[in-house]
């Protein structure tokens, strides 16, 4: 028998560790190679866009080929290099060069497929946000599409002041406080429940957990699932929190209660009690105070304001909806708000003179 085989059989653990080390190294190498390919491809497509634009800018040559330039290029380049040169792809390469000067090209961590999705966004602020957020969250192309369709940037920007909207677009969503992880409206279109619907709270909870990956994507970065129907006993009375998560970045529990009706003042008081219980009974050293989120179908803003008066600032009441938002309406509201703030700043500036 071969001596190498004898040694392997006699001491299998070191050998298995060797196999694992080699496998890990190989997989990491594959990922680095793929990243390098993506980076090279993105650079190549940017340069192709540059060649097209510079050719067009020659004027006389542009007149000869006219509007058929991209169509002609597509036909001839497909004959030479295959289907990667469809007219739409060449159009995106040209757009890529025009929208991203050499000093502001996207991160090399993004693939060409990511960039194509980002180039479809006309608004500069919104496009910048999705570029940064895709890099931060390491979204797949499918995840990027979903977040675009659900109007994530618009939903996050709607409740922010002008400077914070601009910061959001420039840096992406940086999580530093509980306010940074809570949305005013959550979109559960991935449940594919048509309206009107007659789900119970238990059924809604079950469907969310059946689609946990999509639910976590909607909640945002840093959430890890802990428990469903977390049981606690206070003064010999049983209580249950619908869903419990832990936020890795904020280092705190996040408690979620689902309501298929409009939120009531007693729902808010109950959530505050849950947060007090977790702070005293479940938190360990290093944990920060818990965050509470009541997710309701409807909410009365005035009732919530009065019911939370003087209460824990880490208790939030948000709405959820089962369909994608009207992105144009959201955009109109945000830019109307930004214009109002701009006018207000201008008035204050003139009055201070």
Task: Quickly count the domains.
Answer: 3
How many runs of DSSP E, i.e. beta strands? 6
Please write the string of helix (H) and strand (E) elements: HHHHHHHHHHEHHEEEHEHEH
Task: Give the radius of gyration.
Answer: 27 Å
Tags for this entry?
single chain; 353 residues; alpha/beta; Trna Endonuclease, Chain: A, domain 1; 3 domains; six-stranded mixed β-sheet; 15 helices; 57% helix; globular
Summarize the structure.
The protein has 353 residues and is of the alpha/beta class. It has 15 helices and six strands.
Detailed description of the structure:
There is one protein chain. This protein is α/β, with parallel strands linked by helices. The protein has 3 domains: 3-120, no CATH class; 121-174 and 325-353, no CATH class; 178-322, 3-Layer(aba) Sandwich (Trna Endonuclease, Chain: A, domain 1), CATH 3.40.1350.10. It is 57% helix and 15% strand. It has 15 helices and 6 strands. The protein has helices at residues 3-10, 12-56, 60-65, 69-81, 87-99, 112-119, 124-137, 141-149, 152-157, 162-171, 201-210, 212-219, 265-282, 301-307, 327-351; strands spanning 185-187, 223-234, 237-247, 252-262, 291-298, 315-321. The chain has a 6-stranded mixed sheet. The protein is globular. It starts with a helix and ends with a helix.
List the helices and strands and how they pair.
Blueprint: H1 3-10, H2 12-56, H3 60-65, H4 69-81, H5 87-99, H6 112-119, H7 124-137, H8 141-149, H9 152-157, H10 162-171, E1 185-187, H11 201-210, H12 212-219, E2 223-234, E3 237-247, E4 252-262, H13 265-282, E5 291-298, H14 301-307, E6 315-321, H15 327-351
Parallel strand pairs: 1-6, 4-5, 5-6
Antiparallel strand pairs: 2-3, 3-4
Helix pairs in contact: 2-5, 6-7, 7-10
């Amino acid at each position: 028998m071969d001596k190498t085989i004898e040694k392997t059989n006699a001491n299998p653990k070191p050998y298995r560790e060797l196999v694992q080390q080699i496998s890990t190294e190989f997989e990491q190498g594959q990922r680095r190679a793929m990243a390098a390919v993506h980076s090279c491809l993105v650079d190549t497509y940017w340069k192709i866009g540059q060649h097209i634009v510079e050719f067009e800018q020659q004027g006389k040559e542009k007149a000869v080929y006219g509007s058929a330039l991209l169509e002609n290029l597509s036909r001839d380049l497909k004959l030479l290099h295959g289907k990667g040169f469809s007219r739409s792809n060449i159009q995106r390469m040209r757009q890529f060069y025009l929208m991203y000067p050499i000093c502001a090209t996207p991160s090399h961590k993004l693939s060409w497929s990511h960039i194509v999705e980002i180039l479809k966004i006309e608004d500069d602020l919104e496009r910048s946000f999705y570029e940064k957020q895709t890099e931060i969250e390491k979204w797949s192309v499918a995840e990027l599409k979903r977040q675009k369709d659900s109007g994530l940037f618009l939903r996050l920007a709607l409740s922010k002041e002008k400077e914070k909207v601009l910061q959001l677009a420039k840096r992406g969503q940086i999580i530093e406080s509980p306010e940074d992880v809570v949305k005013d409206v959550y979109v559960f279109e991935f449940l594919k429940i048509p309206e009107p619907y007659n789900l119970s709270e238990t059924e809604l909870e079950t469907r969310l957990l059946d689609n946990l990956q999509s639910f976590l994507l909607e909640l945002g970065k840093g959430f890890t699932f802990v428990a469903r129907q977390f049981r606690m006993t206070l003064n010999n009375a049983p209580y249950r929190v619908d869903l419990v998560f832990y936020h890795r970045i904020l280092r705190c529990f996040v408690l979620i209660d689902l309501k298929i009706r409009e939120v009531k003042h007693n729902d808010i008081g109950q959530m505050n009690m849950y947060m007090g219980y977790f702070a005293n009974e479940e938190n360990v050293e290093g944990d920060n105070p818990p965050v509470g989120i009541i997710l309701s179908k409807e909410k009365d803003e005035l009732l919530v304001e009065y019911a939370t008066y003087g209460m824990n600032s880490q208790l939030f009441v948000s709405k959820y909806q089962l369909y994608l938002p009207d992105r144009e309406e959201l955009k109109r509201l945000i830019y109307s708000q930004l214009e109002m703030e701009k006018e207000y700043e201008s008035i204050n500036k003139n009055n201070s003179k």
